[in-house]
# Entry
Amino acid sequence: MHKILMALGTCLAMSPLMAATYCDSRGNSGSEWIAGVGVNGATQSSGSDGGYLNATGKPPFQLTGQDDRLELRPGFRNAQYVENWGAWIDFNQNGSFEASEKVMVAQGSTLVSAPITVPSGVAGTTRMRVQMRWGAAAQPCGSFGYGETEDYLVKLPDGSAQSALPYSLILEPGFWVSRSGDLGDKLTLVIEQDGKRVLGRNAAGHLRDRYWNNVTGNRYRVWLESYIDGGYKVVSNIVGYQPGMTDRVLLSRDANQGSISPSAAFQGNWAIARQGGEVLRQPAQAGVPLQFAFTYGERYQVWAEASVNGKDESISVPLSFREGFPSRYIDLEVEADFLLRHDGPVGIPLNWVIREDGVEVLRQPTGGAAQLRYPFQQGRTYKVWIEQAVGGELVQVSDAEYFSPGLTDLYQLTIGDNRQITRSGNLGDGLTWVIEEEGDVVLERNAANELTYTHYRFDPAKGYRVWLTRFENGYYQRVSNVVRYGRAAEDYLPLYQLTVDANQILTRSAGTHTMLTWVIEQDGSIVLERLAENELSYRYYAYSANKRYRSWLKAYIDGHYQRVSPVVSY
# Structure
């Protein structure tokens, strides 16, 4: 009786997978067979196994629910044959391979590949059946003349965990990856190349990053991890790409026309994925943009697919957007004295939003004004952005700027006519030059041993921004003002250079503007404004060694006073 109860208990404890009895499937592998099976870069090799291989005793393949991919490789004794491929995963774990569980249909005599879409609400470990069959379409059950069937285990992702990921990644042209969240979030950016982890990098200091050692033909996957409950856990979706494949076509969107155009004509399909919905495919017509009835307010990703060597491959980076909502088009800048400026349109209602140490302290209409002066406090950390009301919803329409008075203004940058950047401070200071070209960081260079730097890869048709960073509180943070040059930079270049020496003497470059004025700030309050038209240097008469000072020049231009020099601190 005890043995019967033990056996009954064992049966009750068995998972559906263990209890399931699957249909037989066997071929003849004397001339052709399945030589290798791979999931997300992890592979298992085999040979001619008499028409069937039960590999369920091997470790399971891991599915993530994000950009999973199956690859199958044939083997031949002599001549190669065009084979029919099929693959099924028993997602509902009922012991049968149903039509809805087919994850691959392919044809070819070399390696074939297909994405795996994992349905929501599944979990656990289940069986995957793959089949290579000559002369007829692959079927999950039954005997056939030529080819082979193999069974493997796959571990399904936890559907609830996948849906609750706190961060999101978006793949952009050039294989840049942008993330949600804030600067300072304790995150690790993970890069996987052909199934092997090749990089784990601190992501706290970047909202946008890329891997610089991409190799054409290799497959990459990118995700975020965070240290939680004693171990590193995945906290974002996974994005994947293949240089030389995923960048064949660049997509652009005309929001007014509701169309998406490729940079080059292609034969294949448009893939349209609505957030939380199935992927729809629509045949592409050469030279004709995609027209689709996108639903207002819904988030979409659209990409181009083509058959490459018998495989359906993505040949573009996905275009991500929210229908009816504007892209981030406003340039928001924090000047050296923490004056906020934006270049947004005057006729559209916009709001300034300011968050201090994680708490919102201001949400105020711009009123058509392009500038805002706010009493930012020393030692506080700020996040500032511009938002717009669209369809009754507030939407962020600018990039966010992060700064901290007392840290972000530790060093001053100035720029000369030859694009030479000069920094304050001393040799040996642990600093890094950061060069941004058209929104992409193209150089991070040690600045400890140089007080000046000129970036010689210059294109006058492009816009550049330069700043300094320093490692603070676990990640690299900006510790200087931002200087601009190149395209559309004339509004940001200082009209005067301003320096201060060890004796607190301010010296300006030559030039004449109406009402040119020295401005002296002591411990955050302006204590002097003095005409500077007739003097090239000045020392504040009431200077005190235990006070903190900032100084700059302003001039009366276009009907109002404007700052016309960098801010120097001493």
About this structure: The radius of gyration is 31 Å. Residues 2-13 form the longest helix (12 residues). Confidence is low (pLDDT under 50) at residues 1-19.
